Amino acid sequence: MKFQVTAGFVLLAAFLVFTDNNGTLSYVAAAFFTHEAAHLAALYALGGRATACRLSLWGASLTAGGLSYGREIAVALAGPIASLAAAFIAAHAGYAMAAGLNLAAGIYNLLPARCLDGGRVLELSLSWAGHLNAAHNAARAATLISAAALCVPLCAAFLHGMYNWTLLVSVAFVALSAFWDM
C-alpha cells in the first residue's frame, strides 16, 4: 500500500502540538485513529484492499478498489459509527472530553459534504441508483447546504463571544470542498 504524508499534514500536526495547552491533542488523536481504523477494518472485513493512504491538511483518505457500491457505503459509514460508539463508551466510562470529541467527529462526518463520509455515502447511493450524472452535482449542492447549516452554530457562538476557531475552520473546510476536489 502506498502511504503519503503531505507537507500540509505535517504543518497542521506541528501547529496542533505547539498550541495544545490543555492536553486535548491526545484525545483528538485517539478519536481520529478510532475513526480511521474503523474504515480500514471495514474495508478489509468486506474483502477490499487499500491501495493508498494519504494524510493531508484535509485529513485522511484511503484509496481502494474492487468493492460494490453497498460495500463502499458500509466502509464509509464504519468511521462515523465507530466514533459514535466510542463516544457512548467514553461517556459511560466518565471521560467527558473523549465522549464529546468522538460524538462531534461522528456527527460531523455524517454531514452530506463531499469531503466527509456522509457526502461519500450520498454520492455512492446516487451512483448505485443509476444517477451517475446527478451524483456529483447533488453532492456539491449538499456540501453547500452543510456549510450553510454549520454557519448557524458558528454565528451563534461568535455572537455570544465564544470565538470557536475549530468551528470556523470546519465551516471553511466544508465550503471549500464544494469547489475543490480534496
Which helices and strands, and how do they pair?
Blueprint: E1 2-5, H1 7-19, H2 24-45, E2 49-56, E3 59-65, H3 69-93, H4 96-109, H5 117-128, H6 132-159, H7 165-177
Parallel strand pairs: 1-2
Antiparallel strand pairs: 2-3
Commentary on this structure:
The protein folds into 2 domains: 1-110, no CATH class; 112-182. The chain is 70% helix and 10% strand. It has helices at 7-19, 24-45, 69-93, 96-109, 117-128, 132-159, 165-177; strands at 2-5, 49-56, 59-65. The protein has a 3-stranded mixed sheet with strand order 1-2-3. A hairpin with a 2-residue loop joins strand 2 and strand 3. Helix 2 runs antiparallel to helix 3.
Task: Offer a quick outline of the entry.
The protein is mainly α.
User: Largest beta sheet: what is the strand line-up?
Assistant: 1-2-3
- Count of runs of 4 or more consecutive helical residues: 7
Alpha carbon gap, first and last residue? 20 Å
Most strands sheet: 3 strands, mixed
Q: How much helical structure, as a percent, in the residues?
A: 55-70%
Domain module count? 2
Order of helices and strands: EHHEEHHHHH
**Mean model confidence by pLDDT:** 87
Structural class: mainly alpha
Count of distinct strands: 3
Note the beta-strand portion. 5-15%
Q: Which regions are unreliable across 5 or more consecutive residues at pLDDT < 50?
A: none
CA radius of gyration is: 17 Å
Shape: globular
